[in-house]
Amino acid sequence: MRRAGRDAYMHVGVNALGLDLARPNLNSQFLQRVLPLVEELQPGVSYTVFTSPGGRRLSGRYPVREILGCSTPGDGGYLVPPRGLEIALREAGVDLLFGPAAWAPGRSSVPQVLLAAALDGWHESVSAFRVRDASRRKALTRRLRNAAAIVAPSEHLRRRLIEGLSIGMDRVTVAPPGLEGAASANPLVDPPYIVAAAGRGGAQIWDVILEASRKIQGAFPHGLVALGAPEDPTPESVEPGVLWIEALPAAHRIALYQHCAACVCAAPDDGAGLDVAEALRAGAPVAAAQGGANSEAGGDAPVYFEPGSPQGLAAALRRLLGEDAAARSRRVQLGQQAVARFDWRECASRTLSAFQRVFR
Taking the domains of the chain in order of start, what are their residue ranges? Predict the structure, then answer.
């Protein structure tokens, strides 16, 4: 394979055409945190970043090539990279192209290592992608199948790729992402309160959370902090005692977890179990929807409930809120042990191993 430059060990192209640092998700966090750590782990790795004109930069330390005819993704988060990207890849002499699957070109003259994260829930049902446009669904499937290697954030998603898309086991590397930040001093809300996160689950999941909260309010009086407000909240969801917060910096979010009576992670699966992992690391007792990467991330620490069941969620919350101090302490310790593997440096090491298998 072509070597880029006399002293370069590996020249990696970074596909940042869809990067939107103003609306961070796992894709942008992954690129920002993993790229410099890969450099530390393997001296001689170099990058060229391919981005849209005027796009916010990943880092000032990497050479940038702006690609005309491309904007950040809109509906559904998927885009078709312009033909200029292929020309720029050849001119830059990269050995491989790394970036999110949602932004990948359908074909490339260089092997692609794709990050299978933030794919809008398609992995929850391989036969029924939750993407609006059928052509995008097919394009994403084709990109994943054609990739030289795939980096997946969980073993659960790796199994989905292998079983649902018939991708070879040796092509998928599991690299759980790290967890962000330390807590601020102020949790912003007076206890007692329950924190609820529904990810991209939509208004139906919020309805489940609100109904379960009402069911236990008499026995366990509490406020409810709803992280990630629904796009179209119903009039019934705007009620006293509910604080809707669309987004929070990681430090404030972690502070909320640290001081809450319980945390609800009601989305069936985000592909990585990050809501569950972040809450457990902060020391929150967690009630989580059963299945997917949630169970993988949390192990035995959360109390699980049937997704979509307000009765099940209410029962899980009663169990958590009824525990004494010693039982709560044991649960917190178990949770922090479960999520110790969510480490950015280990994630970078596993990502580097995927690069090396393609590069050799």
Answer: 10-178+343-359, 193-338
For 190-193, which contacts have Cβ atoms below 8 Å and span 24 or more sequence positions? Answer: 190/223, 191/259, 191/260, 191/261, 192/220, 192/221, 192/222, 192/223, 192/261, 193/222, 193/223, 193/224, 193/225, 193/260, 193/261
Rounded to an integer, what distance in angstroms lies between the CA atom of residue 260 and that of residue 283? Answer: 9
Winning range, highest mean pLDDT, from 73-82, 172-181, 262-271: 172-181
Name all contacts of 299-303 with Cβ < 8 Å and 24+ positions apart.
299/334, 299/338, 300/334, 300/338, 301/331, 301/334, 301/335, 301/337, 301/338, 302/265, 302/276, 302/335
Mean pLDDT for 238-242 is: 72
Asked if the bond preceding 192 is cis, omega within 30° of 0, the reply is yes
Residue 118 reports pLDDT greater than 90: no
Mean pLDDT of the chain: 84
Q: Please report, for residues 157, 263, 272, 307, the alpha-carbon distance to residue 311 in angstroms, rounded to integers and kept in the order given.
A: 28, 16, 26, 10
- Measured between alpha carbons, how far is residue 165 from residues 117, 127, 143, 147, 183 in Å? 16, 10, 11, 12, 40
Measure CA 96 to chain center: 23
Check if the beta carbon of residue 47 is closer than 8 Å to that of residue 61: no
Best CA proximity match to 85, nearest among 49, 50, 47, 46: 50
Do 193 and 223 contact (CB within 8 A), yes or no?
A: yes
Q: Are 246 and 231 in contact (CB under 8 A)?
A: no
Quote the pLDDT of residue 28. Answer: 87
Q: Can you give the pLDDT at residue 19?
A: 77
pLDDT digits (tens, 9 = 90+) for 4-43: 444 568 999 999 987 776 667 788 889 999 999 999 999 9
Per-residue pLDDT band for 228 (boundaries 50, 70, 90) equals confident
Q: Which residue has the higher pLDDT, 105 or 311?
A: 311
193-338: CATH class: alpha beta
**10-178+343-359 CATH pick, 3.40.50.2000, 3.90.1150.10, 2.60.120.280, 1.10.569.10:** 3.40.50.2000
